[in-house]
Design brief:
Order of helices and strands: HEEEEEEEEEEEEEEEEEEEEEEEE
Number of strands: 24
Length: 298
């Protein structure tokens, strides 16, 4: 691992995740519906089957984004401390066979995490700023500094706004017309975001899987998969959610089924991506320094 002792980074990240799992719950019940589902065995076969993995050259890779417009998988490598402004982070490009096309497509970042594409740009959260990077060249076009940011994390877009989370500030923010605005506050340890049909925003936090209304109010769709990291929407009732420690779940009609558990192997499952035409879940393994692809059946 570059620039910093791996055991020190592990301790820091583990502390963040413990905080995330045990974070204070949103005590307001107004505008919410909460159910107490259990993780269940699938009534029909649901599985993840390993298809390929990269070489272990993607240092502390935290997120993976499949971009349909160019067929590339973009991987954010923290490389140093997850909250450090150390200039050692990078973004890599993979093809859909798991081959590393360009290891250092963008370099000199701090601790890049969530990514999304809007128009001709890749937007990346980087500790306390949102970066706008030209897809065609890898050049950083703009850097949006976020006031009072603590730990920016996941990102997604509805085509007009770029939504992103500040996990340790418990906020969902968005970029619109060059300005950073607040969408929702008091979302405990909010991490994963995805936008579904009808521009509906979904998120993962310490309370579980949430569906948001346009005013920032929400309902809780599942309250057992808490402290989630990456989120994929298969349809409006079916989701894939990862937890950093090594677990991936299928959440369907509010019920959760565990599809993968690599905690014993100490292989993390961070901010996952998805290739819909191949039903491939793309898994950044963080400390294992590689990305693994699994075929989804359900």
């Amino acid at each position: 691992m570059k620039s910093v002792n791996k055991s020190l980074i592990y301790s820091l990240v583990l502390s963040i995740l413990i905080f995330s799992s045990c974070g204070s719950k949103n005590t307001s019940t107004e505008g919410t519906e909460t159910s107490q589902e259990e993780v269940k065995e699938p009534e029909v076969a649901a599985s993840l089957e390993k298809v390929w993995e990269t070489s272990a050259d993607l240092t502390t890779n935290e997120s993976a984004h499949y971009e349909e417009s160019d067929g590339m998988i973009y991987v954010a490598n923290i490389e140093g401390g997850p909250a450090e402004k150390d200039g050692v982070g990078s973004i890599s490009k993979l093809n859909t066979k798991g081959e590393i096309v360009e290891r250092n497509w963008v370099s000199g970042l701090n601790a890049p995490k969530g990514m999304t594409v809007m128009g001709n740009f890749l937007y990346v959260t980087d500790v306390d700023r949102l970066l706008e990077i030209e897809l065609a060249t890898g050049k950083i076009n703009k850097s949006y500094e976020v006031d009072n940011a603590v730990f920016l994390n996941d990102a997604d877009t509805d085509g007009e706004k770029v939504y992103f989370t500040d996990m340790k500030a418990n906020k969902i923010l968005y970029l619109e017309d060059g300005e950073i605005k607040t969408f929702a506050e008091n979302q405990p340890n909010i991490n994963g975001l995805r936008i579904g049909n009808g521009n509906t925003l979904y998120g993962l936090d310490a309370d579980g899987l949430k569906k948001y209304n346009s005013d920032g109010s929400f309902e809780i769709l599942n309250s057992t998969v808490t402290g989630g990291d990456g989120l994929i929407i298969l349809d409006e009732n079916t989701f894939i959610a990862s937890k950093w420690g090594g677990e991936i779940y299928l959440i369907q009609d509010g019920e959760a089924v565990k599809l993968l558990d690599t905690t014993a192997e100490e292989s993390n499952t961070a901010d996952i991506g998805y290739i819909p035409e191949d039903n491939l879940v793309i898994v950044p393994t963080f400390f294992k320094d590689k990305v693994v692809a699994y075929k989804l059946s359900y």
